Amino acid sequence: MRRRWLGAAGLAFLLAGLAGNAAADAVPVPDGYRMGDYRSPTPASLPGAETVDTAQARALVESGAVLPVNVMKLDRSTLPGGPWLLPKPFPQIPGSVWLPSVGFGSLTPEMEGYFRSNLDRLTAGDRGRGLLFYCLADCWASWNAAKRAVEMGYRRVHWYRDGADGWAEAGLPTEEGKPVPVAAP
């Protein structure tokens, strides 16, 4: 039997990974929604949802078991019903639906309705339809959106904590995201 030694660099990498996991485990799951500081470490899990890693997210997407839902935030123009303002192209998981800005801790009635009506439309009202929520790594928007979907009664909610960052870092294909418009009042 051949033994392999990690060496200093390998040991440092292993310890950094363990520290990263310990840091995620140390982030408490809030009772409600995260209300600010959205780009910060997230908990290791979300009650009522399945937390998935990149390999699991890929398998779910490639099998068609889930609809990937990108919740990366965007700003809207100041015009009523105005378009989303895209500062640059945003790569997303292929086949995703981009519902921007639905991951804030508190949603306006308009954005709450936008989220609910789009999920209902996309799932044809099937609360058993698999949904995969993501944003970026260390982003609470996807955690909040997945929690909201669980509270709406969706039963197969998956939360991909590493988001578009983890997908791209794994060298998986992406497509340019196109946000779903908000209807004019």
UniProtKB/TrEMBL annotation:
Where would one find the signal peptide in this protein? 1-24
User: Where in the numbering of this chain does the Rhodanese domain appear?
Assistant: 93-176
What Gene3D superfamilies does its record include?
Rhodanese-like domain
| Keyword Heme set for record | no
Mind listing the UniProt keywords for this protein, alphabetically?
Signal
Protein name per the record: PQQ-dependent catabolism-associated CXXCW motif protein
Organism annotation: Azospirillum isscasi
